[in-house]
Amino acid sequence: MGSFTTRPVIRGTHGVVTAGHYLAAAAGFRIMEQGGNAADAASSMVLCLTLLEPHNAGLGGECPVLVYSAREKKVHAISGQGCAPAEMTIEWFRRNAVGLIPGDGLLPAMVPATAGTVTELLSRFGTMTFAQVARPAIEMAEEGFPVYRELAASVAQNAERFRRDYPSTAMLYLPDGVAPVEGALFANPAWGETLRRMVESEKRAVSRNRTAGIDAARDEFYRGETAAMIAEFVASNGVVDATGRINTGFLTRGDLMRWRPQVEEPVTLEYRGLSVHKCPPWTQGPVFLQQLALLQGYDLAAMGHNTPSYLHVLIECAKLAFADREAYYGDPAFDRVPLNVLLSAGYNDARRKLVGETPSGELRPGDPWGGKGPALPGSLADVAADNGIALQREGGPHAHDTTHCDAVDRFGNLVSATPSGGWIPSSPVIPGLGFPLGTRGQMFYLNPDRPNALVPGKRPRTTLTPTLVTKDGAPWMAFGTPGGDQQDQWTLQFFLNVVEFGMDLQEAIDAPTAHSDHFPSSFYPRAALLNTMAVEARIPEDVKSELERRGHKVRMDDPWAHGLVQAVRMNPDGVMEGAASPRYQRAYAAGW
User: Fold this and answer.
1) Burial of 150 (0-12, 13-18, 19+ CB in 10 A)
2) Model pTM greater than 0.70?
């Protein structure tokens, strides 16, 4: 008999989906029942998630995607991250004495990417029309869906801010002056009408071919009435941001018209006979691979799962990888990111020697340039001083406000998508559209001499990071989680639980996790919690004590606090599997 798990592994032979909300998973299941493939199902689930989880993701946000195409027998990354507006410059922030880009209001708004990403995924890799995949979301927007505990709590927590600063949000989410209660029906007809305009544009063009129709749906959002409403709202509304300033944003209709998502090559590392694929370094995704490259040199199974030695090595390798993230990652269209060195065996053999018996208290990036590149960052304090970062010793980091979904089908297509941004606590709902803009611009630095510095047209380095794994060139597994900077630590532990410790998907998800907060946060105000290791309280007390004896500052989080990992897998016999974390009680897998 296997270990106890909170849920069974879900299995099917036609398709399996996971999503951060059970109604989105049901929508993906429905699309597959109607003959859709994994890309169709994922497109539908992403749309549903941006309606169902408005405090975690929205149409005004972003959505990196990884796709294994059975037709092409190849993995692709879709750049679901909008870029900085043309008028958004470091010089503007200097003139206005803004040292850090704020985390709310309209000032940090990038071009919204989720709608364009969905249409690109559907057009390039799907089989259905936009009208077909959008139907479940439109129905829920117009007919309403039951409010769940986390959404009710988020609206209640932010109610005063909505009333004071975001009246358009208050009109939608506090219609009677109070937050909706769990179980109440909530509808967002303006959001549904936004998708209906896209559907109508598709219908007018679909006589040419399916792709032309989907392109027309996308053009409505970025060139049509929706784009005009976004631009007008940004131009005419001042919003109080986190610094107490009244600001409008930089986003214009021209910025919307110029943007399109890109289909790119993923970044790949071989590990234990598996090819692990991540989005390029406009996300933090390669940091997952850097951790694996360091861990290649250890016998993790011999150390034992979640032993003090295992967790110590895991955390110290994470510190080294995330130090390189801070030093070198950025939009590769603008920044020179030496991934070929950062992922090489020689570089990681040398870096691995820095892992000692006691934890490091410094930010220690490597030198992939061999002394011939830009100057290395100094101490963690120096990095903080150069970039306006606050070093902290208490508190917790930004860890949620994102969602995820996966899909695998009987044809061999595999999709992993991480929608985020455009969440209601941070920016006002646009009247007539039913969603706010994103605030991902807060992730840019205003130091022009470092990667990830603000430049018009550039993508901010996002934390959003789906993962896709192939084996012998065939699709094997896709997974992801919400969790800000912690995403590539929690999913790494899930992956190692499967690959190194032989756990099934649900066991691997349920197992307690740990993570480091030692590096600067990607979110305003960019705090770093020095030498802090956070562990779920199910980690045994004797393990915690030994970690503290070694010198780690251990913070006990709630027993089921870390993320919302979801995963799907394709087995060689054609049986597909899926599992979802029980944390927060809203993510589910469904199989057919």
Assistant:
1) middle
2) yes
